[in-house]
């Protein structure tokens, strides 16, 4: 088989996906359940990359005798939607992520595999695109994935941000940005599959359409590299790094420091100071900065910057919702709560409330 651009691209994609999957599977830092779900999801993507390449113009002629197992591999597409949905809800800490009803989401996959095994029992060799059930199978996969895209987006409705503020959100609101990266990648892959299917329906030339399927490898390649890029750019885009394994903190001491912190934040509002630092906050409650950082990370699952930003946004919400302060401009309020940039304030406020400051004030005051 002659090596070409898409062959090399596919091999690289498979390798990178396997490495990332292994990384999340063995990683013990951060959120363990989310790690495992993402590892399985990446393995499923790997199977889809292999399937797409196997039916492309570069490889299908070498694998014509293997279309039955390839067709079964294709059915793993029924797993991507539920896994994305579980991952999003697990990351958002919804309580009903895993329970006895979880298995219902995997019924379409099980039914499709069993149906194929029954339908093709006794058949050793067939061509996927010549199969009479290929069309229906494709429609069901696309519809199934679309349903879970919608469900996942609805779960994230309160955390949706605009593309305009996307880069800033990566720097100041890591968890939401990660989920957006994952969903955007999944939607892109779904769109490529949809377009490939549409082209097939128009031209009815399986060989030519299989060529478009090889673009799947390119999309997956770019998607996986995007994940790797953001992991390298900012490791806590995915998880809060566990820096404190060797720094044991007694529970009683932790509770005492936490009470000090909460009391100080509520009564003295140090977050209103635009120049606040971890060290200055630690000095205010007589705690070692490293211990304070550990408490914030472990208790609130946030870094220091995100912790302070949330307090500032909540304070701005109180002011905006108070009719006594209706004459204050948004610019005056943002400076009052510790921000020094209007664009940063607007972006973070909308990320937190899904409304602009003006929209929030209008709804709150009426």
By CATH, the architecture of the largest domain is named Up-down Bundle
Low-confidence stretches: 159-174
Helix content: 55-70%
Number of helices: 17
Our count of domains comes out at: 2
Computed structural class: mainly alpha
- The run of helices and strands is HHHHHHHHHHHHHHHHH
**What is the chains' assembly state?**
single chain
> What is the approximate shape?
elongated
What is the first-to-last residue Cα distance? 69 Å
- What is the CATH class name of the largest domain? Mainly Alpha
Integer-rounded radius of gyration: 25 Å
Count of β-strands = 0
Major sheet summary line: none
Approximately how much beta-strand content do the residues carry?
under 5%
Quickly list its features:
366 residues, mainly alpha, Rhopdopsin 7-helix transmembrane proteins, Arc Repressor Mutant, subunit A, 2 domains, 68% helix
What do you see in this structure?
By secondary structure, the protein is mostly helical. It has 2 domains: 5-237, Rhopdopsin 7-helix transmembrane proteins, CATH 1.20.1070; 251-365, Orthogonal Bundle (Arc Repressor Mutant, subunit A). It is 68% helix and 0% strand. The protein has helices at residues 5-26, 32-54, 67-74, 77-91, 107-119, 134-155, 166-172, 174-203, 206-213, 215-233, 251-267, 278-284, 289-300, 304-321, 330-336, 342-353, 357-365. α2 (32-54) packs antiparallel against α3, α2 runs antiparallel to α4 (77-91) and α6 (134-155) packs antiparallel against α8 (174-203).
